[in-house]
Each structure stands twice: as C-alpha cells, then as structure tokens.
Amino acid sequence: MPESVVILFRNAPYGTVFNAEGLRVCTGLTALDVETHAVFMDDAVFTLLQGQTPKGIHMGDLSKGIIPMIEFEVSVYVMKESLDSRGLAEDDIIKNDEIQIISKKELSKLIVEADVTFSI
C-alpha cells in the first residue's frame, strides 16, 4: 500500500464521471491512512468555481464535494498556470484556507515526493 498519492484532476467537471469518481477515490484513500493530494489543473480548475448550477444538465454541483474532502484531510491544490490561462483568479474559486494555489515547480516536487501519481 502506498503511503502517499497525488491525484491529478485534468478534465472539465461535467460530461464525464472522472472528477466525481476522483473525489470519491480521494476520500476513500484517506480511510486507508494514505496521505492524499488532489491537484486541479487544466480544465479541472472549473470544478472549484463558486456558484455552479449544473441542474440543467442533471448533475450535482461537484464543488460541494471539495470541503468534505478537506475535512477528511485531503490536501487540495490548484495550478496557478491553469487558472491564469482560463482567465480565472483565486477569488473565482471556493473560499477555503486549505486550498493552495501552486506552480508547476511546486507540482513537480509534490509528484517526486509521492509514492504514486494518478492522472484523471
């Protein structure tokens, strides 16, 4: 069993089950005492936007799954470069002091230090 895992969320939040299932995996890993890091990058940064209303596409608001993940001690990160390239600012995402904005260099360090890295 790995001691630490990094999960790279890369896909848009809706249209597939990848992000929804990834959130469940993160929480499940903490139940196994695995140090878990969730990194939202590329189009997955939209998962963290405030004020989502996906009822029109018959899906739940995935951003509501972030705070419970943090409560289960999942470390949550957002790629600064991904926010910037999509015209988003830190003020656009969920307000929580535990969500960290990181750079590519910081992500590289996180991946190197982890036992396992998944990209979804």
Explain this structure.
This protein has 120 residues and is of the alpha/beta class. 30% of the residues lie in helices and 21% in strands. The protein has four helices and five strands, in the order E-H-E-H-E-H-E-H-E. It has a five-stranded parallel sheet with strand order 4-3-2-1-5. Helix 3 links the parallel strand 3 and strand 4. The radius of gyration is 13 Å and the shape is globular. The protein starts with a strand and ends with a strand. The mean pLDDT is 90.
Give helix and strand order, one letter per element, not per position: EHEHEHEHE
How far from one another are the termini? 20 Å
Average of per-residue pLDDT values: 90
Beta-strand percent range: 15-25%
Count of helix runs: 4
Percent helix: 25-40%
Runs in which pLDDT lies below 50 for 5 or more consecutive residues are: none
Largest sheet: 5 strands, parallel
Structural class: alpha/beta
Gross morphology is globular
Q: What is the rounded Rg?
A: 13 Å
Strands side by side in the biggest sheet: 4-3-2-1-5
Number of strands: 5
From the structure above, extract its key features.
120 residues, alpha/beta, 5-stranded parallel sheet, 4 helices, 5 strands, 30% helix, globular
Strand and helix layout:
Layout: E1 4-9, H1 18-31, E2 35-40, H2 66-71, E3 75-79, H3 80-85, E4 99-102, H4 104-113, E5 116-119
Parallel strand pairs: 1-2, 1-5, 2-3, 3-4
